[in-house]
Every structure is written in structure tokens, then in C-alpha cells.
């Protein structure tokens, strides 16, 4: 199916939905992932926190003990989005889960089903792996994302608050840990 859409530069162009390729990320994609993460950080107004390097991704996504997985979406061989997720575990359900750390589609490619395809891929992996759930966080102000997720049947967990330890607070607490 072809349709005409703005490219973000004011010009119209043809776009064919069948030209979208979603594939597993590989070590050669580390720099592309960093660039997409930085674009996401700019969109979320958090660019000062985006410090990941290609080497970080090569080590932690593709090294001997991968901490997460990623998929890239491409149109005409050019990266237009990605999803990055990792395994979790629910003690209440006694089953694994997946946590979607990031889902991002470049603005000029939104509204074309690419984000839905990336999220559907992660959902399929969760089902195939026997996971009890797929979870993620969204910034409270990000109404377009919230509307998108709700349209898929996702619901917010308003009764939970996310907490974070990082930097010096994380190190101070780690210093108190017993030997293990």
C-alpha cells in the first residue's frame, strides 16, 4: 500500500508500507542505536542524560552476557526506529516478563505502523518465551505515546511509582552491601 506523506522537510514523497524491514540489531548497528537513542533523548527533553557510546552497546547488547536485545526498523535501508528490551521476572506470577526500555520512531515516519510493528515484535517474543507480561514506562506529558499505547489495549499502572538510585546514591548504598 502506498501513500503520500510529508517527509518533515515540506516535500511530499511516496512511501510503501511493504518497504519497512524490522530486523535484529547486530554489533555493526551500535553507532546507529546511539544516534537513535540521542534523537529519543532530544524528543523527551533528556538529552543531557544520553551518554551511551557505541562501545557500551557492543559490550552490553552483543557481548558474552547480553543485558538487552534490540530491533531496528529500516525503510529503503535507512534506520527509522528501534525497540530495546530486556528480561524481567515476576515473583507473584512466577514467570519471566519483558521490559521495553525504549521504543522510538523518527518523527517523519510516525503514524505509518512502524512503532506498532516494533511493539508487536516484542509482544510476540514475550508470548513465545512464556512471559506473563510486557511492561514499559512513558513520560506523563507524552500524550501521543500514551494515546498510542492505550489504542493497543495497554493500561497505566497508576498505583505504582518508579524509584531510581543512580550516581553517588547508588554507590553509597552499594558500599553497605554484605559479602555475597
Description:
With about 180 residues, the protein is an alpha+beta fold. The chain has a single domain (about 1-175), classed as Aminopeptidase, CATH 3.40.630.30. It contains five helices and seven strands. It has helices at about 30-45, 55-60, 115-130, 145-150, 165-175, and strands at about 1-5, 10-15, 20-25, 70-75, 80-90, 95-105, 135. The protein has a five-stranded mixed β-sheet, sandwiched between helices. The chain has a two-stranded antiparallel ribbon with strand order 1-2. Helix 3 (about 115-130) links the parallel strand 6 (about 95-105) and strand 7. Helix 1 (about 30-45) packs across helix 2 (about 55-60). The longest helix is centred in the C-terminal third of the chain and has 15 residues, at about 115-130. The radius of gyration is 18 Å and the shape is globular. About 15% of the residues are buried. Residues about 1-15 have low confidence and may be disordered.
Class inferred from helices and paired strands: alpha+beta
pLDDT averaged over residues: 91
What would the principal axes of the Cα set say about the shape? globular
Cα(first) to Cα(last) distance is 57 Å
- Helical stretch count? 5
CATH-defined topology: Aminopeptidase
Q: Determine the strand fraction and express it as a percent band.
A: 25-35%
CATH architecture: 3-Layer(aba) Sandwich
Describe the main β-sheet briefly. Answer: 5 strands, mixed
CATH class: Alpha Beta
What is the N-to-C order of secondary-structure elements (H for helix, E for strand)?
A: EEEHHEEEHEHH
What is the rounded Rg? 18 Å
Low-confidence stretches: 1-15
Strand order of the largest sheet: 3-4-5-6-7
CATH superfamily, called what? Answer: Gcn5-related N-acetyltransferase (GNAT)
Amino acid at each position: 500500500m502506498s501513500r503520500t506523506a510529508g517527509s518533515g522537510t515540506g516535500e511530499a514523497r511516496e512511501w510503501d508500507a511493504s518497504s519497512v524491514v524490522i530486523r535484529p540489531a547486530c554489533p555493526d548497528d551500535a553507532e546507529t542505536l546511539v544516534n537513535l537513542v540521542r534523537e529519543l533523548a532530544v524528543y523527551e527533553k533528556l538529552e543531557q542524560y544520553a551518554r551511551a557510546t557505541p562501545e557500551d552497546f557492543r559490550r552490553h547488547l552483543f557481548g558474552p552476557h547480553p543485558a538487552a536485545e534490540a530491533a531496528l526498523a529500516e525503510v529503503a535501508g535507512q534506520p527509522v526506529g528501534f525497540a530495546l528490551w530486556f528480561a524481567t521476572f515476576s515473583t507473584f506470577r512466577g514467570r519471566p516478563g519483558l521490559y521495553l526500555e525504549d521504543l522510538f520512531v523518527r518523527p517523519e515516519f510516525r503514524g505509518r505502523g512502524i512503532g506498532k510493528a516494533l511493539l508487536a515484535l516484542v509482544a510476540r517474543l514475550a508470548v513465545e518465551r512464556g512471559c506473563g507480561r510486557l511492561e514499559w514506562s512513558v513520560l506523563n506529558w507524552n500524550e501521543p505515546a500514551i494515546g498510542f499505547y492505550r489504542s493497543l489495549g495497554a493500561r497505566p499502572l497508576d498505583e505504582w511509582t518508579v524509584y531510581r538510585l543512580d550516581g553517588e546514591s547508588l554507590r553509597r548504598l552499594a558500599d553497605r552491601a554484605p559479602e555475597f
